């Protein structure tokens, strides 16, 4: 009966979000309450599990998410990401822009929220597309979509990646060692495969593009802020407002990644000590990045601009933390029901390949949740909450299971996602065009990354 009640709770959460348009935070709480009470956990212990799970996940990931969002907000306000895009255009040329953009999106841009990423990238895609040819816009759109979400789920400090690590108790440094390769690799391979599809007639500009006045107005507004190809000088500088040199501006992102990676490699090489552990601690590393971004912002944005950027970051952080924390609550309630013992049976196999079967099951759980809910982060967090309590019973490295969840959560982003419609509008696509670009590339990315995750699971 516990398994049945869990299935009902998950279906109810999905139905509330999709059918009745209830906020994911409220939906997850309702599902958690139902599961605890219906499974016989009891009133008091159900509430304890919800609050305890929230507190536990916040202790692990709360500061990390907060610091990461604030870093992104400050750098965005200084025009760092527009400047990076301009540098890519001037360095690689328009023809190579799909690959340059997808690489940047999957490695550096995960420090900012996905909707901001597409707002920054869409005008550049529209401007660069004519220089590439008839397939320029769809190829750039596909590269942007693949890069944004590959970075979101595989790369630190992508929200989905950090959340999965917290729910499965994976060290960020250990995850980074794999994600820093898997993220851009997935994005680049996906963009290449999508380019082949385009060459074989996958795209029809007449049916798949709808570049109207509304899009032109949005683009003009964004380009005026410093994103136009023509307004960027040979050095990648934007003349719209004072900002730090690109190499300096990226330090708040690069320094924390180096610190986290240093700690991870030191651990692997058995060279750790308290000071190295301190330097490699993800919370310390991201705080160093936040401090650097704050000092740069005070230098270039002054006090008022810095305060405005921080306020925007705090606003975004609150929503993210609530959803992430309540994903931890659901996992704690599942643990309180004793379902972990029953679920453990699903992650074993008598066919001689338990590792592969376990990884595939984790991927399927995340993929189904994403198709139903329409949010990559909510799907990843919910899948992590479901599978987390079962991990001790699975004879697979937690990193492999986490990467499988990340890969599955990418699968087939479509019309029930708010991002889908933003992507469609900003890039000037029809609904069919958005399905043939964003939905296609997220599906390809999920399928491309899965064999790599399986291979990793067999060797780590």
Structure description:
One of its GO terms (cellular component) is plasma membrane. This protein has one domain (2-459). The chain is 78% helix and 0% strand. The model is unreliable at 213-239 and 349-353 (pLDDT under 50). The protein is globular. It has 460 residues and is mainly α.
Helix-strand layout with pairing:
Elements: H1 2-18, H2 24-38, H3 43-77, H4 80-92, H5 97-107, H6 114-132, H7 136-154, H8 159-167, H9 172-199, H10 205-208, H11 213-227, H12 246-249, H13 251-268, H14 274-280, H15 282-300, H16 302-337, H17 339-344, H18 354-373, H19 376-387, H20 398-409, H21 418-427, H22 431-459
Provide a compact summary of the structure.
One of its GO terms (molecular function) is gluconate transmembrane transporter activity. 78% of the residues lie in helices and 0% in strands.
Number of helices: 22
pLDDT average, as an integer?
83
Order of helices and strands: HHHHHHHHHHHHHHHHHHHHHH
The percentage helix is over 70%
Which segments are poorly predicted (pLDDT under 50) over 5 or more consecutive residues? 213-239, 349-353
Q: Strand share of the residues? A: under 5%
Indicate the structural class.
mainly alpha
Give the distance, in angstroms, between the N- and C-terminal Cα atoms: 36 Å
Largest sheet: none
Shape: globular
Radius of gyration over all CA atoms, rounded? 22 Å
Quickly count the domains: 1
Strand count: 0
């Amino acid at each position: 009966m516990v398994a049945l009640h869990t299935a009902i709770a998950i279906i109810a959460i999905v139905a509330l979000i999709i059918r009745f348009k209830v906020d994911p935070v409220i939906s997850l709480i309702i599902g958690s309450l139902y599961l605890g009470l219906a499974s016989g956990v009891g009133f008091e212990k159900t509430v304890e599990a919800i609050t305890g799970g929230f507190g536990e996940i916040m202790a692990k990931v709360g500061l990390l998410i907060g610091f990461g969002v604030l870093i992104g907000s400050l750098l965005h306000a200084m025009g760092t990401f527009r400047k990076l895009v301009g540098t890519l255009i001037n360095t690689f040329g328009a023809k190579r822009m799909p690959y340059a953009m997808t690489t940047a999106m999957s490695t550096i841009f995960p420090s900012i929220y996905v909707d901001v990423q597409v707002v920054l990238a869409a005008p550049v895609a529209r401007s660069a597309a004519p220089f590439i040819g008839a397939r320029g816009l769809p190829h750039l759109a596909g590269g942007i979509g693949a890069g944004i979400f590959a970075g979101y789920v595989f790369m630190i400090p992508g929200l989905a990646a950090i959340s999965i690590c917290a729910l499965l108790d994976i060290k960020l440094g250990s995850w980074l060692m794999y994600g820093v390769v898997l993220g851009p690799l997935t994005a680049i391979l996906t963009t290449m495969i999508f380019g082949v599809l385009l060459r074989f007639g996958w795209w029809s500009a007449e049916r798949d593009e709808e570049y109207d006045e509304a899009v032109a107005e949005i683009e003009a507004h964004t380009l005026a802020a410093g994103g136009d190809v023509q307004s960027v000088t040979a050095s990648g500088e934007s003349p719209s407002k004072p900002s730090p040199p690109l190499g300096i501006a990226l330090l708040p992102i690069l320094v924390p990644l180096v610190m986290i990676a240093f700690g991870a490699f030191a651990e692997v090489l058995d060279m750790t000590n308290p000071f190295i552990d301190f330097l490699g601690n993800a919370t310390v590393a991201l705080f160093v990045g936040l401090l650097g971004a704050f000092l740069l912002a005070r230098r270039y944005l002054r006090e008022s601009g810095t305060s405005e950027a921080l306020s925007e970051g705090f606003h975004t952080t609150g929503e993210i933390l609530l959803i992430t924390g309540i994903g931890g609550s659901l996992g704690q309630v599942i643990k309180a029901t004793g379902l972990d013992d029953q679920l453990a049976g699903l992650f074993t196999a008598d066919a001689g390949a338990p590792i592969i079967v376990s990884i595939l099951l984790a991927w399927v759980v995340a993929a189904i949740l994403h198709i139903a809910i329409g949010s990559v982060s909510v799907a990843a967090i919910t899948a992590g909450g479901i599978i987390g309590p079962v991990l001790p019973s699975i004879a697979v490295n937690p990193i492999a299971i986490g990467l499988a969840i990340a890969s599955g959560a990418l699968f087939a982003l479509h019309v029930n996602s708010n991002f889908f419609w933003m992507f469609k509008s900003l890039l000037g696509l029809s609904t069919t065009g958005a399905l043939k670009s964003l939905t296609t590339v997220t599906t390809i990315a999920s399928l491309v990354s899965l064999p790599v995750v399986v291979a990793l699971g067999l060797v780590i």
